[in-house]
Amino acid sequence: MGALHHGHAQLIREARKVAGNSGAVIASIFVNPTQFGPREDFSAYPRPLKADLKICREAGADAVFVPVIEEMYPSKASISVDENSLSLTLCGRSRAGHFSGVCTVVAKLFLIVAPTHAIFGEKDWQQLAIIRRMVRDLNFNIQILPCPTVREIDGLAASSRNAYLTNEERRVAPEIHAALCAAATKPTPAKIASEAARRISKIPGARIDYIEAVDADTLQPLRHRKSEGRLAAAVFLGKARLIDNIPLPAFP
């Protein structure tokens, strides 16, 4: 989607490791209109293409695919890719149609570029899970590789949305990740989620969209600690909606 930062650069560096000297690393930059909701301003989304290309080049990309809207969505296009399970939870609950837009554009990018591997960040765990499911269900011959969330030195997940934070909001924003980590020590998923909510609600200016402990694969509510989980949160700070998640390892 552009507006790249050092988290995106890490995805490219990881791809460079996979490709080695003989393979090619291709990045795509496309502000996709179909994943914007009715209250989300597509026209205002930042598009610093020159700076983005510099980041791609320095991180090790061999090429960058920068299509125009007409190239991705021909006139009277009537086909889309929908996911009807994983996309109904977490961010999908409050962003109707968002993941249909994501699946459609990623499927098209996969078909155009024809990669052998694709790197997705763990910061948007729901997106990663949905892309994995799409590749499995539609028989894409692509290996999806996760990249751990890149964080600032104070723990805040790297995001283009961080630029919307005021100085005071930026000061308290790392407390979101700290709250998730502290809550993860509780013995049950219900207590983990409630403790995270309690801590985050005390952050000045924070408004909770959701905080949930979910199964890492199905994204359904985690009932016990016998399966791998994720503690995921979306929190508003001022104009910014920040998402983050951490692993909840299964107990033996």
List the helices and strands and how they pair.
Blueprint: H1 6-19, E1 26-28, H2 49-59, E2 63-65, H3 69-72, H4 90-94, H5 98-113, E3 117-121, H6 125-137, E4 143-147, H7 167-172, H8 175-183, H9 189-201, E5 206-215, E6 229-237, E7 240-248
Parallel strand pairs: 1-2, 3-4
Antiparallel strand pairs: 5-6, 6-7
Helix pairs in contact: 1-2, 5-6, 8-9
Task: Provide the descriptors you would attach to this structure in a database record.
Rossmann fold; 9 helices; 17% strand; two-stranded parallel sheet; three-stranded antiparallel β-sheet; alpha/beta; Pantoate--beta-alanine Ligase, Chain: A,domain 2; 252 residues; 2 domains
Mean pLDDT: 96
List the helices and strands in order. Answer: HEHEHHHEHEHHHEEE
Q: What does the largest sheet look like? A: 3 strands, antiparallel
- Overall body shape: globular
Tell me roughly what share of residues is in helical segments. 25-40%
Q: Give the termini distance in whole angstroms.
A: 40 Å
Order of neighbouring strands in the sheet with most strands: 5-6-7
Quickly give the CATH architecture of the largest domain: 3-Layer(aba) Sandwich
Helix-strand makeup class: alpha/beta
Number of strands: 7
What number of structural domains do the residues give? 2
User: Beta-sheet strand percentage?
Assistant: 15-25%
Q: What CATH first level of the largest domain would be assigned?
A: Alpha Beta
